[in-house]
C-alpha cells in the first residue's frame, strides 16, 4: 500500500505546488502565504488546509519526523530581470527563512523554485548559497532549469527548480543512491493529467472574485495578474512530485 505523503507549502501563492499535490492525494500539512488575494483563492480551493501567514513566525520543529516534502517558490523579485536585482540586499530575499524551516522539520525532500536570474545574480553566489545551505544539512542537491513551455504552456517561463534529497534516503527495493534518485527525474516517464485540467484551474483564478470593482483598493484584474505572474505552473510541479512519490514508495 502506498504511503500518504505529507507536504509543507511555503510561499504558496495561489497553490501551484498544492494543486499538483492534491491531484496526487498528498496531505498538505499547512500553507504559508501573506498576500490577501492569494489567501482568498487558497481559502476557496483548499478550505481544510491550515493557513500560516508570515514565514518568519512559523515554528516548524513540531513537524520534525512527520513531513516528507517541503516546497516553496521563495520570492523572485530580488533576482527578476523586471526588478532592481538587489539579491540578498533586497528585504524580500527570504531563502534564509525557508532554509530555517527546512532545518527545523528536516523533510526527506525539498523543492525550491525561482526565476532564472537566481543563477546569474551576483555571479551565481546566491544560487550557490542555496545549494550549499542544503548540502550543509546533509542533502544531495540537483538543480534543473525547466520552462513551463516544456509542459504545454503558452509561454516559455524558464524557472530554476532546486531539488534536494536528504542524505541516507534509500530505495528499500534496490538501495538506490541519491544520484540514481535524481536520474529518475530525467528518465521516469509518467503520464501527466490532461493539460486542460490545469489550464482550467489557472483560468478559474481570472473569474474568482465576485466583485467587479475593487479588491483591497486595487482593481481586481491587477490582483489576478500579479498572482498568476508569480504562480508555480502546476504541470511542472506535478512532474516533480509524482517522481518523488515514485521514489518514496518504490
Main beta sheet, described?
7 strands, mixed
Protein structure class: alpha/beta
CATH topology: Rossmann fold
* Shape by Cα distribution: globular
- Overall number of strands: 9
The topology string of helices and strands comes to EHEHEEHEHHEEHHEEHH
The CATH architecture assignment turns out to be 3-Layer(aba) Sandwich
Helix content: 25-40%
Provide the fold topology.
Layout: E1 6-10, H1 16-23, E2 27-32, H2 36-45, E3 51-52, E4 69-72, H3 95-105, E5 109-115, H4 117-120, H5 125-136, E6 139-147, E7 158-166, H6 178-187, H7 195-206, E8 214-215, E9 218-219, H8 220-230, H9 234-249
Parallel strand pairs: 1-2, 1-4, 2-3, 4-5
Antiparallel strand pairs: 5-7, 6-7, 8-9
Helix pairs in contact: 1-9
Report on the architecture of this protein:
The protein has one domain (6-249): 3-Layer(aba) Sandwich (Rossmann fold). With 250 residues, it is of the alpha/beta class. The radius of gyration is 18 Å and the shape is globular. The longest helix has 16 residues, at 234-249. The strands form 2 sheets. A 7-stranded mixed β-sheet has the order 3-2-1-4-5-7-6, sandwiched between helices. A two-stranded antiparallel sheet has the order 8-9. It has 9 helices and 9 strands. This is Cytosine-specific methyltransferase. The active site is at 76. Pfam families: DNA_methylase.
Amino acid at each position: 500500500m502506498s504511503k500518504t505523503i505529507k507536504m509543507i507549502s511555503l510561499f504558496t501563492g495561489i497553490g501551484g505546488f498544492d494543486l499538483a499535490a492534491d491531484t496526487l492525494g498528498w496531505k498538505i500539512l499547512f500553507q504559508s502565504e501573506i498576500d490577501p488575494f492569494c489567501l482568498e483563492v487558497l481559502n476557496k480551493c483548499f478550505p481544510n488546509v491550515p493557513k500560516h501567514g508570515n514565514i518568519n513566525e512559523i515554528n516548524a520543529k513540531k513537524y520534525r519526523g512527520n513531513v516528507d516534502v517541503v516546497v516553496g517558490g521563495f520570492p523572485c523579485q530580488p533576482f527578476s530581470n523586471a526588478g532592481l536585482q538587489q539579491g540578498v540586499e533586497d528585504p524580500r530575499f527570504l531563502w534564509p527563512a525557508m532554509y530555517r524551516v527546512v532545518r527545523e522539520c528536516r523533510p526527506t525532500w525539498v523543492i525550491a523554485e525561482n526565476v532564472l536570474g537566481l543563477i546569474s545574480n551576483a555571479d551565481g553566489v546566491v544560487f550557490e548559497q542555496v545549494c550549499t545551505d542544503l548540502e550543509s544539512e546533509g542533502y544531495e542537491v540537483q538543480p534543473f532549469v525547466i520552462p513551463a513551455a516544456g509542459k504545454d504552456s503558452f509561454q516559455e517561463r524558464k524557472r530554476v527548480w532546486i531539488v534536494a534529497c536528504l542524505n541516507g534516503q534509500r530505495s528499500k527495493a534496490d538501495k538506490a543512491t541519491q544520484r540514481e534518485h535524481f536520474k529518475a527525474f530525467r528518465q521516469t516517464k509518467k503520464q501527466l493529467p490532461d493539460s486542460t485540467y490545469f489550464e482550467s484551474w489557472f483560468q478559474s483564478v481570472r473569474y474568482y472574485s465576485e466583485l467587479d470593482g475593487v479588491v483591497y483598493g486595487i482593481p481586481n484584474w491587477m490582483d489576478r495578474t500579479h498572482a498568476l505572474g508569480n504562480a508555480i505552473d502546476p504541470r511542472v510541479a506535478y512532474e516533480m512530485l509524482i517522481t518523488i512519490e515514485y521514489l518514496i514508495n518504490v
